[in-house]
Amino acid sequence: MFRRRPPRPASSAEVVPLSRTQLLGVLAGLLLVGGVLLYGLGYTLVSSISAGTAPDGVQSSAHPDADPAQRRDLIAAAPMATVAQDAGLTPGVAIAMPPAILLPAATTVGASGVPSGYPRTPEGAAAQLAAIEVRVLSAMSLPLATEVYRNWAMRGGVGAADWSQTRNVQSFLTHARQSSNELDPGTLVSVTPAAIQIKGTDGPDWVVACVLLDVRAALKTEARMGYGTCERMQWTGDHWLIGPGAPPAPAPSTWPGSDASVEAGWQPIASN
Question: How many CB atoms are located within 10 Å of the residue 272 CB?
Fold first, then answer.
């Protein structure tokens, strides 16, 4: 079944989120201006923890006349919730949080050091995407980003050079004035998945999964924000890969545990 969770309506005050590259550029800029020891982009969640599954979305019958490729393009391109331009940078605590979801654990380590072995479920697809994103953004290395894309993306996508995470790494290294295409020895980055959305599915082998990440880099000051990202995920053989096709519509980037985060549809991830 093809399912998609409809986005919440936006108010007249809401605007389309900044692009992923712009978000990372803003944070790197804050790093340079602020002069601190902890630089963060991202998301910290404190909420009640409960096991469960990600919420459902729209079924494939919503597009009965579309062929499989068209159905998948429609769900990938469908807009997500819009948030205020500074939602990822504005602190806030939600009055009510949705129940946290416990993502499946990896059972092996795959190519390029990316954890793998997640189950053939939407939550498994989200967990695999999170593992890919964590590996790339933790290293902030352009050679590794290119390698990970080649090992973990199917043919027919945007290519390693135009992949959103390759561009994010490039933006971070540039704005943080790193000396090469990899992190300088004195810069440390940690990345933790904070929340997910299952934007849509088309049968058991195809998912548009979205992950909100807590990314922090140790430098001189602290700036924090939520960073949301989505990919088409396709089951191939015995594991999930980034699927072919145009990138999904941008995910909303919101502050940890804020009302904006809840309203944008993010479901917090439970601690293992």
Answer: 6
